[in-house]
């Protein structure tokens, strides 16, 4: 995958609509350039190059403090990406998670769109959709929100549960039992 356009010319104002058309239903996104301009630029670049088309959402979590659907890895393993990485644009305004007595974790509210990563400054193509309020360290770039139809789609996927395996008959982290594929990612007007 080629690198996105030169970040010196990255727009840092306004929002952009993107629709993820999945086999389970549409997920409408509003990307916020002011919140994370480089992340939005990269996401749009990948969508424009059809990177997300025909890719699975490979991970669903159902921990008490983490309920997300993770997508954006064409390999479906959680290890894949676009062949480039870029710096974090970490949130500074997330409220403390009410379930965390230490005050370290922040509230990633239902409907949040954020980048998954493997450590500092390792953003690539993987992202997660927050299905229910989740408590995380503020180490994940927030770059948008999910619309009502998208949340309804997420709720259906989450209600289907996580695919059981012989090693874990009642998992809280793994592949969604209802397979999810992003058929097409399209930018709105």
Q: What does this protein look like?
A:
By secondary structure, the chain is of the alpha+beta class. It has helices spanning 37-48, 148-160; strands spanning 15-22, 25-32, 55-56, 59-61, 67-71, 106-108, 112-115, 127-132, 134-136, 142-146, 173-174, 181-187. It has one domain: Cyclophilin, CATH 2.40.100.10. Helix content is 13%, strand content 30%. Strands 3-12-1-2-10-7-8-5-4-11 form a ten-stranded antiparallel sheet. β1 and β2 (25-32) form a beta hairpin. The longest helix is centred in the last third of the chain and has 13 residues, at 148-160. The two termini are 25 Å apart. 37% of the residues are buried. The model has no long low-confidence stretch (mean pLDDT 95).
List the helices and strands and how they pair.
Layout: E1 15-22, E2 25-32, H1 37-48, E3 55-56, E4 59-61, E5 67-71, E6 106-108, E7 112-115, E8 127-132, E9 134-136, E10 142-146, H2 148-160, E11 173-174, E12 181-187
Antiparallel strand pairs: 1-2, 1-12, 2-10, 3-12, 4-5, 4-11, 5-8, 6-9, 7-8, 7-10
Biggest pleated-sheet summary: 10 strands, antiparallel
| Number of β-strand runs | 12
Report low-confidence residues grouped into runs of 5 or more.
Answer: none
Named CATH topology? Cyclophilin
């Amino acid at each position: 995958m080629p690198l996105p356009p030169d970040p010196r010319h990255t727009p840092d104002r306004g929002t952009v609509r993107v629709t993820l058309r999945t086999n389970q239903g549409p997920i409408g996104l509003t990307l916020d350039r002011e919140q994370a301009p480089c992340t939005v630029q990269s996401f749009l670049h990948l969508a424009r190059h059809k990177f997300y088309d025909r890719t699975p959402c490979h991970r669903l979590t159902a921990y008490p403090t983490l309920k997300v659907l993770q997508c954006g890895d064409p390999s479906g393993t959680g290890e894949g990406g676009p062949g480039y990485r870029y710096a974090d644009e970490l949130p500074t305004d997330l409220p403390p998670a009410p379930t965390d007595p230490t005050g370290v974790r922040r509230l990633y509210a239902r409907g949040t769109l954020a980048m998954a990563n493997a450590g500092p400054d390792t953003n690539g193509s993987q992202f997660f959709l927050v299905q229910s309020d989740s408590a995380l360290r503020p180490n994940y770039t927030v770059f948008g929100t999910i619309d009502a139809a998208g949340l309804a789609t997420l709720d259906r996927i989450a209600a289907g549960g996580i695919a059981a395996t012989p090693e874990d008959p009642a998992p809280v982290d793994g592949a969604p039992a209802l397979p999810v594929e992003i058929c097409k990612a399209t930018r709105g007007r």
